[in-house]
Write the structure tokens for this entry.
Amino acid sequence: MSYYLGIDTSNYTTSVALYNTETNEVISEKKLLPVKSGEKGIRQSDAVFHHTVQLPDLIEDLFKDFKGEIKAIGASVKPCNEDGSYMPCFLTGISVARSLSKVMNVPLYEFSHQDGHIAAALYSADKLDLINNKFLAFHISGGTSQALLVEPNENYFSTEKVSYSLDLKAGQAVDRVGVMLGLDFPCGPELEKLALKSKQPLKKLKVFRRDGNFSLSGVENKCKKMLVDGASAEDISMYCLSYIYSALDDTVSELISKYGNLPVVFSGGVMSNQIIRTELQKKYNSYFAEPQFSADNACGVAVLSSICDKRKI
């Protein structure tokens, strides 16, 4: 059987994946980068070190029972498609991918980490056919919080940033509030569990906007005040998610008014949150990656490498 190998070394996770085009199945291995308790992130030098340690073990696990043929390799080489987009952590993945490409004598295709998130969401939602159409894509994570207008091209698709956070990223907001509450980084899953115990519903809040973009910095200050005033961790968690939901809801509504009723695809670790997801699905023609495909993963770049290989880009 023919497989496509994907490699992604982000600022959160080391991940590798194999995509079987004949069965449309993906198998993957991934491991979070270790972050010390109480810290809100990881230095790039430490990320590169941990990827260097973790990546060989994950590839070994991925290929433990492998009996197929690798047709091509895809790797993330930068965070997004903007000029100057760069993070050292991606050097680890592309270095290994280049070596394997030469040893196996197969093509290597390079993508942005954001491209991979979009493709993983499309694959997970069984909507890969949207690659041939125009749609809106939201990439909401610890490193990025922006909306993109996605259009097909001769490669796979092009992206144009049409809205973004003016300051704090959604994942940063979740992690800062979570650490404030004593949760382990990354805090998303634990914060969601706390919010589900709150007696307060997810509600629409007023979020500052400017020129079609949104601000999330206010949520950290508000949550700090709630904590000082004696609010429960559960209610603070729900308020944090309500704030992020409100920013996204306003943005989707504004973009649909501007570009028409396009499909909306959500990706990124924050969008694995079921509370926010459920509310957005009620209002819009939207598609979400399942949690394992929403957080950082190599599945999307594996899928994209198969598309590029068929088109021989």
About this structure: The chain has ten helices and twelve strands.
